[in-house]
Design a protein that fits this description.
Elements: E1 7-17, E2 20-24, E3 34-39, E4 42-43, H1 65-76, E5 80-88, E6 94-100, E7 107-108, H2 109-115, E8 120-121, H3 126-131, H4 133-148, E9 163-165, H5 171-177, E10 182-192, E11 195-200, E12 209-217, E13 220-221, E14 225-228, E15 231-234, H6 238-249, E16 253-262, E17 265-272, E18 275-276, H7 277-283, E19 288-289, H8 291-294, H9 302-316, H10 334-337, E20 347-355, E21 360-365, E22 370-375, H11 394-397, H12 410-418, E23 424-428, E24 434-438, H13 439-442, E25 448-459, E26 462-469
Parallel strand pairs: 3-6, 9-12, 12-17
Antiparallel strand pairs: 1-2, 1-5, 2-3, 4-8, 5-6, 6-7, 10-11, 10-16, 11-12, 13-19, 14-15, 16-17, 17-18, 20-21, 20-23, 21-22, 22-26, 23-25, 24-25, 25-26
Helix pairs in contact: 2-4, 7-9
């Protein structure tokens, strides 16, 4: 005689489809183990799948497959449930029952799906079905949905199939059309702490078009998780950052603010009723601010909040900042004696190893130190919004980074300098030319940044005058 069925408990991490649920344990010193439960005795429609080499057109939704997924997701995601395991196949597939709440007396999810006409009951042979009280309850629920014409049993099947756009032909126009607008979305997959896959929900009444996009959070970068030889190779705290975002955003409905794009990867902000996930990651020491990325952040006050959150994590030496040491501001005289610094009157030789956007170069001197210099008296075109005099120049600081080929002459100016890569140069920094820029422009951890003018000669009759960032 079989013993009583063991009732297990956990928290719903993800709903793969109407009849497939991922349940995790509570975390203890890291991401917890998880188990996928397939609901016994019922079957729901299969969701759409993106195109592949073998299936170039992809797979469309079965009727009411999305509605079944959303029905279960809205009920269970992030909630505590209990479940029983009825069958475990050698393939690892596990069948069982899932109940909402802390006991098996809670709502039976399979029965609820049948009552709404979002699932179909698997047929058992008559003797086995007659003796199974639970099966009889499920059968009654299905018969009720059929009599009322609900879901799968309705006459209108075509309207229950989504139009899913997997690849957006013109990402830039897609972003421009939604610039400044918040779009509802559902986080489908968290690749790492600052990258996630989302389904953008229809923003026009009556529309049935859904967009599946990959989004990187603007202004920040979390440790990534790379795949090498089929195995996950995370950077330090990469799994922690991924779980941190998963436990808060995975399959939650969020507001998405698209700010830029790079090919098929979009850049933007993800806003939840509980806050901005990028700011929370920074505060917990699970991400770092990226200077050029901060120009893209369009949420009012968010860039300053990101900096403040990062400073707090540094002060507390959390996670990525566990070995952080507060930098000390060097004295004016220390530059003369530091071999890694350049000072007025100093000269050195080296080779150009890198160029920027057409007005800056990196030179590797004979002592092996790489120094970055900016050309003085000129300014190459920038991949950002144009300067506006009527706003005090604020638009230049907050300009959006655009693609290299979108801004006239950015590519050409860079190519001119790129032709000098690998050439030897002689650099001389005369005394007496210096200016000071605000720390927010280059180095947020210092009070000021000193700039000095100098000369760089490629040969006897060609020179470039530039600013040296100390």
């Amino acid at each position: 005689m079989a013993g009583p069925t063991t009732v297990l408990s956990g928290i719903v991490k993800q709903v793969l489809s109407g009849d497939s649920i991922v349940i995790r344990d509570r975390p203890v010193d890291g991401p917890p183990p998880e188990k996928t439960i397939v609901l016994s005795n019922i079957v729901c429609g299969k969701l759409a799948r993106r195109p592949t080499i073998n299936i170039p057109n992809g797979v469309v939704d079965d009727p009411f497959a999305w509605q079944a997924r959303e029905f279960v997701r809205s009920k269970l995601i992030g909630k505590e449930v209990c479940y029983t395991v009825e069958t475990e196949l050698p393939s690892g597939r596990t069948y069982g029952c899932v109940y909402l709440g802390k006991s098996a007396n809670g709502e039976n999810i399979a029965r609820s799906l049948l009552e709404e006409g979002l699932a179909e009951l698997r047929k058992l042979n008559t003797p086995a079905a007659d003796k199974n009280a639970t099966y009889q309850q499920l059968l009654a629920a299905e018969e009720s949905a059929k009599s009322l014409g609900k879901g799968r049993w309705s006459s209108n099947q075509s309207s229950a199939v989504r139009d899913v756009v997997w690849s957006i032909s013109d990402p830039k126009s897609f972003v421009d059309k939604r610039k400044g607008q918040q779009t509802r979305g559902i986080v489908e997959y968290v690749r790492d702490g600052s990258s996630m896959q989302l389904t953008l929900l229809p923003d026009v009444p009556g529309s049935n078009t859904f967009y599946n996009i990959m989004l990187s959070l603007s202004g920040v970068r979390a440790p990534v998780i790379r795949m090498e030889d089929g195995k996950q190779v995370p950077e330090p705290f990469g799994l922690d950052a991924q779980f941190f975002v998963e436990s808060r955003l995975l399959q939650r409905e969020v507001m998405v603010l698209l700010e830029s794009s790079m090919n098929q990867t979009f850049i933007g902000s993800v806003l939840h009723p509980n806050g901005n996930i990028a700011e929370v990651l920074l505060r917990e020491g699970l991400a770092k601010c990226i200077d050029w990325y901060l120009n893209l952040v369009s949420v009012p006050g968010a860039a300053d909040a990101y900096r403040a959150a990062e400073r707090l994590a540094k002060e507390r030496r959390l996670r990525l900042w566990k070995d952080y040491q507060t930098p000390s501001l060097p004295s004016e005289t220390s530059h003369v004696h530091d071999p890694n610094k350049v000072s007025p009157g100093m000269s050195f030789t080296g080779k150009i190893v890198e160029v920027g956007n057409g007005d800056n170069i990196s030179i590797k001197s004979t002592d092996g130190v790489v120094r970055k210099f900016f050309l003085s008296s000129i300014r190459a075109p920038r991949p950002s919004a144009p300067f506006k005099e009527d706003d005090g120049g604020l638009s230049a600081q907050r300009g959006r980074i655009r693609l290299l080929f979108d801004v006239p002459y950015v590519f050409e100016s860079r190519e001119v300098l790129r032709s000098f890569i690998g050439k030897s140069v002689s650099c001389i920094l005369p005394v007496g030319h210096r200016s000071t820029h605000s720390a927010t422009l280059a180095n947020p951890d210092c009070n000021s940044v000193n700039l000095r003018f100098g000369g760089c000669m490629f040969d006897s009759n060609t020179s470039i005058t530039f600013v040296c960032v100390l």
